[in-house]
Amino acid sequence: MIRVPSQPIASLGSAWRACVGTGRTREVLHADYRDSLEVVQAEIGFAATRAHGILHDDMGLVRRYEHQGRTATRYGFSYLDLVIDTWLDAGIAPFLELGFMPEALASGPDTVFWWQGNITPPRDQAEWAELVQAVLRHLIDRYGIEQVRTWPIEVWNEPNLPVFWKDADEAAYHRLYATTARAVKEIDAALQVGGPAISPGSDEWLPNFAEFVAHNDVPCDFISKHAYTTGPAQHVPFGVHQTLRPPQHLLEQFASPQHLLAGTSLAGLPVHITEFSSSYRPDNPIHDTAYQAAYLAPVLARGGEHVASFSYWTLCDVFEEVGIPTAPLHGGFGLLGHRQLRKPAFHLYAFMARMGDTILAQGDDHLITRHADGRIAALLWQSLDGSAVASTGHRVRLSLPASGPAHVVERHVDAERGNVRAAWQAMGSPLAPDSRAIADLHDASSPAVRIHRVQPSEGRWELDVALGRHGIALVEVTGSADEVPEWFDEQRLLGADGGAQ
Asked: Is 275 a catalytic residue?
């Protein structure tokens, strides 16, 4: 039994929904992405989003031309404006990741992904600085300096990996960062710039980065890195399987910058985890499962204790790094599958969005909060360590401070309930479900709901909540008087003699 106190122990911050990932910037113009963005913002409400490829050639920013014997550059902002407008109209701001290298500026032909993002340093640092400043000037002219100052500017993506940065050349990244940061600050000193946006496994990059910026007097306003818990990919056609470390390992990764940067000039700066999830692969079926939701629940509950933001990768499955997906549920990163199919991880976030502002209790399988109006909201989950698939569910017993009779609303998602992947598999895992099947999948993805009344006992509400296998639950307790008329008798539904049940 968890005895929940009446006085709060902490406040529930907003780091868990301060940012969410988007795939590549050009994908924002896809109708399915825009429909997904609308759903996510209505039910969760993220503050910002980060995308790859804002400078990639498919955005049309850098256009070379020749005239009268000279070569010059025209910058085209049409698609950039469409993307930013789409985000702002949905109430979400950009977290600007600068990359990848436009072909006209690139020092080599090396690319990554199906859509061929160039991963080489600029041929000319001055040309790169000119592009960065042209983009920022345009954004300021269009959206105003006060707004753009609130948009963090991150330099590149995972330069510690050779797949994302030619030869994972640390010195070359430092040169790029210095050029970029100085170019940003020349536009406006209050613009926020940071990095190094590294993936897990290269923690030495952080103290090295701190030493470089301090020794060379390079601006840095925040630290960014990524966090995942999966091992090497075990490939199968159109997918992978991977081992998982415990979810607490994600929290350790969140906390690592403050330890690695202690005593440096960057100590105390805001830390943004600009990507996190279980797997770093866009084709791992774990992303679509109830297991993913229960596994990540403790991370959402406690991640804000370590960082300013931690950004789920990604908002939806409009995502083309390894090509165009061939199934509506294919292990994609998204909270939503194609056609806005709500995955269990989406419900985890939607449950969090219904939590109160003050924390009454938290532990290995629960986060209990209270709203300003007195309502109690509890997020419960089956604790999973990543080493095994649970065969049974989990039970949480709560003793809550009471204030009279109340009604309880339980929302459940688990291996069987509110699980779109389980429903899709029961259909035979169709690659192209028709409209009727899509409608059925939407119905099956809704959390199971149970509503019941509870009476106080010695000033407490006693609840016994049964979670399904790999389950998460949102339990909301609202004080409410019983307004059933005194003449109503349930036993008389079929007449004066009663007997109906």
From this structure: yes
Q: DSSP state, 252?
A: H
Task: Give the tokens for residue 158.
Answer: 């995972």
Q: Using alpha carbons, select from 389, 215, 65, 367 the residue that is nearest to residue 207.
A: 215
Q: Does residue 431 contact residue 327 with C-beta atoms inside 8 Å?
A: yes
151 burial class (0-12, 13-18, 19+ CB within 10 angstroms)? middle
Average pLDDT over residues 432-442: 97
Active site residue 158: yes
Give the β-pairing of 48-52 and 93-98. parallel
- Selected catalytic residue, list 27, 170, 275, 410: 275
Structure tokens at 122: 């600029």
Please pick, among 27, 97, 154, 158, the residue that the annotation labels catalytic.
158
How far is Cα 372 from Cα 370, in angstroms, rounded to an integer? 7
In sequence order, what are the residues at sequence separation of 6 or more whose Cβ sits closer than 8 angstroms to the Cβ of residue 290? 344, 413, 414, 415, 419, 421, 422, 469, 470, 471, 472
Describe the chain by its helix, strand, coil percentages, rounded to 5.
Answer: 30, 25, 45
What is the β-pairing status of strands 117-118 and 10-11?
unpaired
**Helices within 90-159 (DSSP H only):** 125-143, 145-148
Q: How confident is the model at residue 72 (pLDDT cuts 50, 70, 90)?
A: confident
Tokens of 17: 């929904």
Q: pLDDT per residue over 153-202, tens digit each?
A: 999 999 999 999 999 999 999 999 999 999 999 999 999 999 999 999 89
Burial class (CB in 10 A: 0-12, 13-18, 19+), 17: buried
